[in-house]
Structures are given as C-alpha cells and as structure tokens.
Target: HTH tetR-type domain-containing protein
Amino acid sequence: MPKRNTSDHNSSQIPTIWLKPIKSPRELPLLTREKIIHAAIHILDEAGLNGLTIRKLAQQLNVGPTSLYNHIETRDDVLELALDSIIGEVAFSNKNLAVEQALTDFLIEWRRVLLKHIWSISLLGFKPLIGPNALAHAEHLRSILVRTDLSISSIIYFEYTLSNFLIGSVVSQVSWQTGNEQEIRNQVASFITLNAETYPLLAAHAGNVHDDWDQSFIYGLQGIIRCLIKQ
Model:
C-alpha cells in the first residue's frame, strides 16, 4: 500500500510557527508572508486582537481565505509572525556605551514599540519568543550583560527582571490610559479619601499623584539596573 503522507498532520501539531516547515505557495505568487504580516499588523493596530480574523485578513489583502493557507495554517501563526515583526522595530542600543546606559536605551526603545502596538502585550506570554527578531534582540541584550562581572545565572535572572519590569510597566500604563486617565485618577482618589479609615496611608497621599509615565519608567529601570549590576 502507498505510504500515507502525514506531513500536514504533523505540522499542525507543532506549537509554534517557527518550527514548522515553510510552505511553497501553489497559487497567487504575489501573496507573500511579508504582505500577510504587514496587513495583520495594520488590522491589529486598528482593531486589536479581537479584530483580527482570517476572513478579515483575507479581505484586507483582497484574496480568498483559502489563499492564506498556502502561507500560514492558523490565526495563531499570524499572531506569532506579527509579534516577531514588531519586535524587529526595536532599535539596538549602542554597545559602545556604558552597560547602564546601553541597557536603559534598549529598554526605553522596547517600551516605545510595545506602546505603539499595545496588542503585543497580550501576546508576550502567548508562545515562546523564538522568531528571528526575538532571538536577535535576546542576543543583543545578552551581549550587553556579559560585559558585567555577573555569573551566567545572575545574567539570566537579570534578563527576567528587566523583562518583567518592562511588561508590568507597559501593562500598568495601558490600563490607566484605556479611558480618560485624569478622570479615572480623580475617581480613585475620591474613593480612597472616602475610605480613609481603611486606607489611611493611601488617603494621606491621594493628592500626590505622579503620572509622568516616561519619568517613572526611567527612574524604576535605572534603579533596578544599578542594584543588579552592583550585587
């Protein structure tokens, strides 16, 4: 009996697009993976994660939905490709700078790109970041940190700490800025003041809100970097 071709089935079981074999398009040669990624990012920036569907993506590209499957298998594949593409927008810092400044510049640039594409925050724990841009940026970060006297274990912990601070900072900012930030802050301050017996310290400082997100990020980032480098 002829041997059954199970390549498509096996490919569908691979959890990340970066480990799947690249398909050879059988039709519509003008439709490329790059065009699909560009269209997907446009939709994600305009409508968020819920706005991206295979049908909507096909409409954006003026093709039938089945044409997309010559390049991708699932919506998750598209999200992985889009995420790695925007990671490629993060400019490398100048490695000739002092370690602290190189790290600060690199993380500020990461934050800029994440805030530009706020949908990306929800995807950072979605799949392993092993796309070419993600790995190149991980390599760049490691190249800065190996200039310190830290052990490799400490460097890896350092990377986790920086990543968690970056993501947490952006998530916090986006959550406050979903609506009218000042109005939300005023409502929260009023609530805390009315419940001063329960939250005495918060109530005492309710009027001292520091909402300069850029300055807060840099202050926290530089504090973390100094502490970790000097450990």
Remarks:
- Residues 1-9 have pLDDT under 50 and may be disordered.
- The CA atoms of residues 175 and 221 lie 20 Å apart.
